[in-house]
């Protein structure tokens, strides 16, 4: 599995705006193409990507824009709903965004005439993470610098509210048990909440700060990963509330941590944009060094493909894609 670690992106797609956030649809939308959304300074673009790794008759990457939605303000985050379906008639595109005005917008489109959105208001500071309930798609969880985690229904009503001890940085929903939620705080604490009892049931400690991003491994929900300070950290929640493994990874602080959707030992991290470029790395728990080192001019956002060992990162007027071997 020896690969030349430092490399350019395998594919790039030119975009008409700076890409602040990029998100593959993590759910099966019933179509062979892979839905991807990216957010710029004032709009969201929905497209499909098909890669030569999945379809032999395609050379490289086939990308098609399905819809450009005027957003009016810089997009901070994007979360897909499992209700999105491309094979229904008419198709259903459903996702929500967070934005610089501290509001969440819930969009529903049929890619033709219907293009609606609802505004969810309640946070009083920047929203750092948001996610749909992955089973039904009937709830949205969000965390913010205002030291809260909030759960909303699709009407925009808050159904739960958890007070945090520091800014909420990441929120993840358990893939099967939709009453379990993971919330990561900047002070290094990661808590798991039971939404039925509205109580915290377990907590983990990073022992270093600031914790900027954490992610629940969907292939093995006993695993949690995060970046704090310059390091990545991995917990096995059956063994300890402290990390099992940690390594220094980015010189000037790490920014985002994301597990692969298909391999519980594969994950990616990004660093903060430095003077020249942001560092992007793919890691495998069986390897002491990163298996891919990439660099992006002011990169932002990080998302794994649903069925391939392939990552997307946003950049200056482009999306960049890196492919690794399993």
Automatic annotation (TrEMBL):
<comment type="subunit">
    <text>Component of the Nup107-160 subcomplex of the nuclear pore complex (NPC). The Nup107-160 subcomplex includes NUP160, NUP133, NUP107, NUP98, NUP85, NUP43, NUP37, SEH1 and SEC13.</text>
</comment>
<keyword id="KW-0498">Mitosis</keyword>
<keyword id="KW-0813">Transport</keyword>
<keyword id="KW-0159">Chromosome partition</keyword>
<dbReference type="GO" id="GO:0000776">
    <property type="term" value="C:kinetochore"/>
</dbReference>
<dbReference type="GO" id="GO:0015031">
    <property type="term" value="P:protein transport"/>
</dbReference>
<dbReference type="GO" id="GO:0051028">
    <property type="term" value="P:mRNA transport"/>
</dbReference>
<dbReference type="InterPro" id="IPR001680">
    <property type="entry name" value="WD40_rpt"/>
</dbReference>
<dbReference type="InterPro" id="IPR037626">
    <property type="entry name" value="NUP37"/>
</dbReference>
<dbReference type="Pfam" id="PF00400">
    <property type="entry name" value="WD40"/>
</dbReference>
<feature type="repeat" description="WD">
    <location>
        <begin position="120"/>
        <end position="155"/>
    </location>
</feature>
<keyword id="KW-0995">Kinetochore</keyword>
<comment type="function">
    <text>Component of the Nup107-160 subcomplex of the nuclear pore complex (NPC). The Nup107-160 subcomplex is required for the assembly of a functional NPC. The Nup107-160 subcomplex is also required for normal kinetochore microtubule attachment, mitotic progression and chromosome segregation.</text>
</comment>
<dbReference type="GO" id="GO:0031080">
    <property type="term" value="C:nuclear pore outer ring"/>
</dbReference>
<keyword id="KW-0137">Centromere</keyword>
<dbReference type="GO" id="GO:0051301">
    <property type="term" value="P:cell division"/>
</dbReference>
<keyword id="KW-0158">Chromosome</keyword>
<dbReference type="InterPro" id="IPR019775">
    <property type="entry name" value="WD40_repeat_CS"/>
</dbReference>
<keyword id="KW-0131">Cell cycle</keyword>
<keyword id="KW-0653">Protein transport</keyword>
<keyword id="KW-0906">Nuclear pore complex</keyword>
<dbReference type="GO" id="GO:0007059">
    <property type="term" value="P:chromosome segregation"/>
</dbReference>
<keyword id="KW-0132">Cell division</keyword>
<keyword id="KW-0811">Translocation</keyword>
<keyword id="KW-0539">Nucleus</keyword>
<keyword id="KW-0853">WD repeat</keyword>
<keyword id="KW-0677">Repeat</keyword>
<protein>
    <recommendedName>
        <fullName>Nucleoporin Nup37</fullName>
    </recommendedName>
</protein>
<dbReference type="InterPro" id="IPR015943">
    <property type="entry name" value="WD40/YVTN_repeat-like_dom_sf"/>
</dbReference>
<dbReference type="InterPro" id="IPR036322">
    <property type="entry name" value="WD40_repeat_dom_sf"/>
</dbReference>
<keyword id="KW-0509">mRNA transport</keyword>
């Amino acid at each position: 599995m020896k690969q030349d670690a430092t490399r350019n992106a395998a594919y790039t797609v030119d975009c008409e705006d700076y890409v602040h956030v990029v998100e593959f649809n993590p759910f099966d939308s019933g179509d062979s193409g892979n839905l991807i959304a990216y957010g710029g300074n004032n709009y969201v673009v929905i497209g499909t990507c098909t890669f030569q790794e999945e379809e032999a008759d395609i050379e490289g990457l086939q990308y098609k824009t399905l819809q450009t939605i005027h957003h009016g303000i810089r997009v901070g985050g994007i979360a897909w709903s499992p209700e999105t379906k491309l094979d229904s008639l008419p198709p259903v595109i459903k996702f929500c965004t967070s934005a610089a005005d501290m509001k969440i917008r819930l969009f529903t489109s049929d890619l033709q005439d219907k293009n609606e959105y609802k505004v969810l208001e309640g946070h009083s500071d920047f929203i750092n993470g948001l996610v749909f309930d992955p089973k039904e798609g009937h709830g949205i969880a969000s965390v913010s610098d205002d030291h809260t985690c909030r759960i909303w229904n699709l009407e925009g009503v808050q159904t739960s509210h958890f007070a945090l001890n520091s800014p909420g940085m990441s929120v993840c929903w358990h893939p099967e048990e939709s009453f379990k939620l993971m919330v990561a705080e900047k002070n290094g604490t990661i808590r798991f909440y039971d939404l039925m009892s509205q109580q915290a049931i377990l907590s983990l400690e990073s022992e270093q700060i600031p914790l900027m991003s954490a992610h629940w491994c969907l292939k093995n929900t006993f695993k949690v990963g995060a970046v704090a300070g310059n390091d990545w950290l991995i917990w096995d929640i059956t063994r300890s509330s402290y990390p099992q493994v940690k390594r220094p990874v980015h010189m000037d602080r790490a920014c985002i941590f994301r597990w692969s959707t298909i391999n519980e030992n594969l994950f990616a991290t990004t660093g903060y944009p430095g003077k020249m470029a942001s560092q992007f790395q793919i890691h495998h728990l069986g390897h002491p060094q990163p298996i891919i080192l990439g660099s992006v001019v002011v990169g932002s956002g990080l998302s794994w493909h649903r069925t391939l060992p392939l990552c997307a990162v946003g950049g200056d007027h482009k999306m960049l894609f890196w492919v690794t071997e399993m």
